[in-house]
Amino acid sequence: MTEQPSNTHRKIIHIDMDAFYASVEQRDFPEYRGKPLVVGGLPEGRGGVVATASYEARKFGVRSAMSSKKALQLCPHALFVRPRFNVYREVSQHIREIFSRYTDLIEPLSLDEAYLDVTHDKQDIGSAIEIAKLIKQAIKDELQLTASAGVSINKFVAKIASDINKPDGLKFIGPSSIENFMEQLPVEKFFGVGKVTAQKMKQMGLHTGADLKRLEESELTRHFGKVGKFYYQIVRGIDNREVQPHRETKSLGAEDTFAYDLTTLEEMEAELDKIATTVHNRLLKYELKGRTITLKVKYHDFKQITRNQSFQTPVNDLETISNTAKQLMATTGVDDVKVRLLGISLSNFGELQVKQRDDRELGPGDQLELEL
Questions:
Q1: In degrees rounded to 5, what are phi and psi of residue 194?
Q2: Is residue 112 part of an annotated ligand binding site?
Q3: Going by C-beta distance under 8 Å and a sequence separation of 6 or more, which residues neighbour residue 322?
Q4: What is the rounded distance in angstroms from the CA atom of residue 283 to the CA atom of residue 247?
Q5: How many other C-beta atoms can be found within 10 angstroms of the C-beta atom of residue 350?
Q6: Structure confidence at residue 127 (pLDDT)
């Protein structure tokens, strides 16, 4: 990797709150502290999904986007509570105010996560590491919560770094360390690589960044499409994306690729209920409502179709999302078909003030599509 002169490097911090929803609940309700706590849909409800799990629950394998019933199977003594998004939003606003003491270049990815560009910080501190320490301490002192921080010269590496020493972690990956770091990184940690793509890569013998680095850009794009170009750059530590304080979310959704093909409408509708629940939770988390609901269907032969329906006013309620998706599914003709993947997304957000996050399940574009 050809390095630029050091004075041209950006100073990027990625802040990620630790088990945010669960930590807020444990802060506010002492009876939850030290216990496995799951925030999300209740397991006795239909299609409940985990929004966040406390670290005590994560020890049992409970993860975000997992069905609540699965979480209960893994951790039978877990406590389940519904999200209090109004409280989380208030806490998030306080966190944002702490960020703004140091920079106005803040790109929120969700209520609990953001990029900060502190190349030229307001207080002339000059050190991104020192600023990250001050932010973490302010969050701890003022909100009784912990955050993890990653510091580097670009967004991708800073985001990965913030996850290395969780919880309450701080990791700096400097310019001279990036190339070696990227070579050792497992492919499933790369932005744009979800479970399906990671499996494909491993079948090709690509397990780490070093393996990806052996392929030419043309080979990566042939196998993985346009995002292959991004893989080619990022494995060399090149990420020129700027911190964008006012990014516009184009769409938000979720999709699932099934272990076996779905062949009956009942199976499809059951899966659509689960996906709709995930979409609903995501919309609440990012404070979004959309006017257009889109259904995505991929068949066993990889043929793909979409169907959509638009509304006069924005929606984000679970019943509308689920029922609309099932109605659209019924129009596709489900007799004698084998469905490999289903997805639901909302778009046409209009003039709403929104928040956006990157998600490494997809490519580097602005679209928000989240795999289950």
A1: -95, -170
A2: yes
A3: 47, 272, 273, 276, 277
A4: 16
A5: 10
A6: 96
Stretch (H or E) spanning 175: helix 175-184
At 190 the pLDDT is 81
- The domains of the chain, with CATH numbers, are 6-18+86-177 (3.30.70.270), 20-85 (3.40.1170.60), 185-234 (1.10.150.20), 251-355 (3.30.1490.100)
Exposed e or buried b per residue across 194-223, where buried means at least 16 C-beta atoms within 10 angstroms of its C-beta: beebbeebeeeebebbebbeebeeeebbee
Helices 265-285 & 318-330 angle (0-180, nearest 10): 140
Contact indicator for 318, 284 with CB cutoff of 8 Å: no
Q: How far apart are CA 83 and CA 44, in angstroms?
A: 16
- Is there a contact between 161 and 19 (Cβ–Cβ < 8 Å)? no
For residue 144, what are its two tokens?
Answer: 């009784």
Query: What would the pLDDT profile of 249-306 be if each residue is shown by its tens digit?
Result: 677 888 888 878 899 988 899 999 999 998 998 888 777 889 999 999 999 888 899 9
Q: Please measure the distance between the N-terminal and C-terminal CA atoms of the chain and give it in whole angstroms.
A: 34
In whole angstroms, what separates CA 133 from the centre of its chain?
24
- In terms of Cα–Cα distance, which of 59, 138, 63, 67 is closest to 102? 138
256 is in an annotated binding site: no
Q: Is 113 a catalytic residue?
A: yes
| Strands 113-117 and 12-17, sheet pairing | antiparallel
Using CA atoms, how far residue 37 sits from 19, 53, 145, 221, 367, in Å, is 10, 6, 16, 42, 31
260: buried, middle or exposed (CB in 10 Å: 19+, 13-18, 0-12)? exposed
Catalytic residue (one of 25, 56, 113, 271) = 113
Q: How far apart are CA 106 and CA 187, in angstroms?
A: 28
Query: If you write DSSP's letter for every residue of 42-57 in order, what string do you get?
Result: -TTSTT-BEEEE-HHH
**Which letter, b or e, does each residue of 22-40 get, where b requires 16 or more Cβ atoms within 10 Å of its Cβ?**
bbbbbeeeeebeeebbbbb
Q: Determine how many CB atoms are found less than 10 A away from the CB of residue 353.
A: 8
